[in-house]
Prior knowledge:
Helix content is 37%, strand content 15%. By secondary structure, it is an alpha/beta fold. Strands 1-2-3 form a three-stranded parallel sheet, covered by helices on one side.
Amino acid sequence: MRIIAGEKRGTKLYTLEGLNTRPTLDRVKESLFNIIQSEIRDSIFLDIFAGSGAIGLEAVSRGAKKAILCDNNKQAIQIIKKNIEKTRVSRQSRTLSNAI
């Protein structure tokens, strides 16, 4: 899995092992961002079921002011934090978890 466009284009992301999350295919991400591209710049992007954080981090790479990445899986939050560190967008990103 990787960032497909923007400032962080080509950055490979960490992913979760197992079947708890399903990664969004690059072609689906590309279609999504083609639809919302005019709304991204300087937006606050909310990714409710973030998994690895790929969608929210893609938004930041494409110019979102901030991404809020939410998941209820503890391992997912750990992976998201690693991906935030790897992409160096900690100032533009925040994680939220209701994991027990």
